[in-house]
Amino acid sequence: MRLSRRTFVLGSLGAVVAPRPAPAYPFTLGVASGEPAPDSVVLWTRLAPKPLDEDGQGGMSRADVTVDWQVSTSESFARPIAYGNVVARQADAHSVHVVAGGLAPGAEYFYRFRTQGHTSPVGRTRTAPAFTSFGPDLSMLFASCANFEHGFFTAYRRMAEENPGLILHLGDYIYEGAPSPDRPRQHLGPEVLTLADYRRRYGQYKLEAELQAAHAVAPWLVVPDDHDVENDYAGTHRLDNVPPLSPAQWTARHAAAYRAYYEHLPLRPSAAPTGTSLPIYRRIRWGRLATFHMLDTRQFRDPQVCGGVWKACPGADRPGRSITGSAQEKWLLDGLAKHEGTWDVIGQQVFFAQRQDKRGAGAMDYWDGYTASRERLQKGWADRKVRNPVVLTGDIHSAWANDLKADYDNPRSRTIGTELVCTSITSRADGTATTAIPNGATNPHLKFYSDRRGYVRTTIGRDRIRADFRGLDAVTRRDVPIRTIRSFVIPDGRPGLQAP
């Protein structure tokens, strides 16, 4: 046993100094990357030895902590090509968002963090191709709606096993509700209202090994939806007052939710919220292959009409109503007009295509509750001759594939786009084996439906997108295998769904 000079001297004087205990392992929530650009990517972690502590501090002291980071082309990290350090601040729940720059376009990298004598798990990430390059075909998965109480996160494990190049998450990363005693597993604590509550809830979700594996395998692009804050909220408006909150309490909850969302996901520092403002809509170019337009359909929308329920509601058709807000709508149409990629992929939260019953009723929380907004967007991309608009959607807890029509009331109307809707990771539990399209006779442009849980696997190429709807037969049991329920292709220049 080797003794330091200080220990030897003090020991000789009869004052035995016990060695200071090493800090507890802080990387319990894993690592993540996101926001790939041709020369950079965001690296994320949060130091939290005890992420379930009620105070939301994750078992950390009030001190800020320096964290080292490394990026390498090999898992051995023999020759790191980018490295540095960053301060994990107590005010940010000791989370870090490192923009690792100086990277090569279209390249695969490995990354890790170190602090206080501990080393994080290794994550894999990649940069986007150069703006002038198509690069190889892109394997991209997208998912939404992971309710911890409704089942196990097996779908995240299966996503990791696909080894994708990119993952999109379209909202409801967490659920805010109180525990339900009849569920297979329960949320910790009551319904989340405070910043400490939200941090603890994220800690409970991110402790799941399956979610950590999905984050560690590829970069993510994320947008929040309602349950990341509160069910069915619209801008500053609450659809109902459950639980009862004063305006000040609602504002505090809203701000806490956005802050915790940013703290726990691999977003660029420019996306850090200010109060109840979260600058989340943005555009990510994947070379000349695709442009991802990531939308926010919660923060700027007009309140839902007719209580947000399924109804034939004349107010839904008012010309001035918007689900995106005018500034975001203009931003989207201006971006679509640039024609920067073969595919214009619109990542957003709620059901886009018209879906009504024979009485004309539809869901007022979806784009059916904002018909003028949908008509402006669809006409806008048609007028701008957008070649391949593809809308990706989450939220509805079932899988759909839809043709987007210039006039939904005319079955012979021109198809001007395609919508792919992912099912949930767990929300609504196991589901059923049915593939009969609800209200299919009334909506012939709706081409596919599945009630299983899972995700969508896409392969984005220069001449087509292939979409495989991947489903699990159960999420209330662990480690269930996944299978492809149905596949479609979208040919370049021919909007709409075709058989593969």
TrEMBL record:
CDD domains according to UniProt: MPP_PhoD
InterPro entries noted in UniProt: Metallo-depent_PP-like, PhoD-like_MPP, PhoD-like_sf, PhoD_N, Phospholipid_Metab_Enz
Pfam families according to UniProt: PhoD (PF09423), PhoD_N (PF16655)
UniProt superkingdom: Bacteria
Coiled-coil ranges per UniProt: none
Signal peptide, first to last residue: 1-24
Domain spans labelled PhoD-like phosphatase metallophosphatase: 141-469
Domain Phospholipase D N-terminal: 29-127
UniProt entry keywords in alphabetical sequence: Signal
Protein name, as recorded: Alkaline phosphatase D family protein
